[in-house]
Amino acid sequence: GAGVSQSPRYKVAKRGQDVALRCDPISGHVSLFWYQQALGQGPEFLTYFQNEAQLDKSGLPSDRFFAERPEGSVSTLKIQRTQQEDSAVYLCASSLGDWGRGTDTQYFGPGTRLTVL
Amino acid sequence: AQSVTQLDSQVPVFEEAPVELRCNYSSSVSVYLFWYVQYPNQGLQLLLKYLSGSTLVKGINGFEAEFNKSQTSFHLRKPSVHISDTAEYFCGHQGGSEKLVFGKGTKLTVNP
Fold it and tell me: For A104, which of A25, A95, B20, B23 could close a Cys bridge (C-beta 3.0–4.6 Å)?
């Protein structure tokens, strides 16, 4: 069956450009998460959606980061005026139920590697 | 705040040898613990998870982990590793309704 997919897999941006990263979760999954994985680090939580509602955006590093999931399925993470420190792998994950229950496994996509020059 | 410590950033081991990857978490009322594996240029794949019940958890690919509440540890073990186990391993901790927090990862290299 189809897993979580992300596009593009690789993105190179010049400093100051805007980028949009797409995530297609597993069909029917209620919860969707975005993580940022810097080089040599573990994934760090950015934001969480339950269906179309963004219930937690506490991990977004600045107001240049914006995420949406308007119809409760596909999600887009947008970064405005990219900076070099935004270079990282951005991972998307989805789970069947709501995240309040740790019993739900998060399934991860392959990630988008963003390089800001 | 939750935290996860993976004590070894790199672990080299010979093929067919046993391996243990160490993980300690910060204590919380509810504890859900996970081990994920990440192969190069891929996302994270769940190896195993502890939610409740038996402290010894068995996962895929012959891995197992033991939850130790008194030591706040969740070490990952495999009795005999293969070349194909070469990857990066991440320990994760979710306390109740809190977000999933990962350690910095341990790179396991299995040498012939």
Answer: A95
Higher pLDDT, A95 or B2: A95
Chain B residues whose C-beta is within 8 A of a chain A C-beta are 4, 6, 30, 32, 36, 41-46, 49, 51, 90, 94, 96-97, 99-105
Best of B49, B100, B107 to disrupt the A interface by mutation (most A CBs within 10 Å)? B100
**pLDDT tens-digit readout, B32-66:** 899 999 998 788 999 999 988 888 999 999 999 99
CATH number at residue B37: 2.60.40.10
**CATH code 2.60.40.10 for A1-8+26-99:** yes
Query: Given A41, A93, A111, which is nearest B104 (Cβ)?
Result: A41
Please tell me the total count of domains within chain B: 1
Domain ranges of chain A: 1-8+26-99
Ranges of beta strands (E only) in chain B are 4-5, 10-14, 19-21, 24-25, 32-38, 44-50, 56-58, 64-68, 73-78, 87-94, 101-102, 106-111
Place of tokens 């186990």: B85
Tell me which chain A residues have a C-beta less than 8 angstroms from the C-beta of B42.
110-111
Over residues A39-62, the pLDDT tens digits come to 989 999 999 999 999 999 999 999
Structure tokens at B17: 């040898």
Residue of A nearest to B42 (CA): A110
